[in-house]
Amino acid sequence: MKILIVEDDFTLAGEICRLCEKWGFEAVYLEEFQEVDKQCEKSGCDLVLMDINLPYYDGFYWCSKIRSFSRVPILFLSSRDQNADKVMAMVSGGDDYVEKPFDTELLLVKIRALLRRAYEYTQADREYLGEHLVYDRNQGVLLYKGRTIEMTKSENRILGILAENKGRVVEREELMQHLWSTDEYVTDASLTVLVSRLRAKIAECADGVSCIHTRKGKGYYLE
């Protein structure tokens, strides 16, 4: 699990980074704060530790920006102990709040709790199709680094069927029958086009990741 530390006190950020690595996490901290949301998306992190008092814009602002494209857990760190700040942290999309100076054991407990809540409980509903590429079968959503890849109804249906049968070749006829059941008539040729477009869309949005494979003369599968 990768943790992104957004803290402008670089001495503290380095200490937190070393703590996280000691606990078995990968950790990085930002050194610039003009585009925290974009750096968060680029990092592919699994959790964000967010200070409130930051240069340019505060942590509440960046939390709201991150929430526009990602569900990554966000844990606020702040020396501000007013209840209004804690409420604002939750309103802006944060998941929890720790006051500075914090107890290291408490920080670890909160980090593990957020990661468990965000990932372990949904593990059964998620198929990992590549690095940072996840298909949430329960919600019918394809995510890359926490950001949704938009799919058409047919593309979603195809990926859902392949995810349900991961590791097994799904024959073309079977895929077409599933699509017919949704009142969409698909020919053999149009299925080829649909799969090709889905592959191209995933590769474009997920930095070239290729997850849908072809068994010639049979069908398609996910490894």
TrEMBL record:
InterPro entries attached here? CheY-like_superfamily, OmpR/PhoB-type_DNA-bd, Sig_transdc_resp-reg_C-effctor, Sig_transdc_resp-reg_receiver, WalR-like, WH-like_DNA-bd_sf
- Keywords annotated in UniProt: DNA-binding, Phosphoprotein, Transcription, Transcription regulation
Residues bearing the modification 4-aspartylphosphate: 51
Q: Could you tell me which residue ranges the OmpR/PhoB-type domain spans?
A: 125-223
- Highest taxon of the source? Bacteria
> From the UniProt annotation, which stretches of this protein bind DNA?
125-223
Q: Where is the Response regulatory domain?
A: 2-115
Q: Which residues form a coiled coil?
A: none
PROSITE patterns from the xrefs?
OMPR_PHOB, RESPONSE_REGULATORY
The protein's matches in Pfam families, at most eight in alphabetical order, are given as: Response_reg (PF00072), Trans_reg_C (PF00486)
Report the protein's function: May play the central regulatory role in sporulation. It may be an element of the effector pathway responsible for the activation of sporulation genes in response to nutritional stress. Spo0A may act in concert with spo0H (a sigma factor) to control the expression of some genes that are critical to the sporulation process.
From the Swiss-Prot or TrEMBL record, give the protein name: Stage 0 sporulation protein A homolog
Species lineage: Bacteria, Bacillati, Bacillota, Clostridia, Lachnospirales
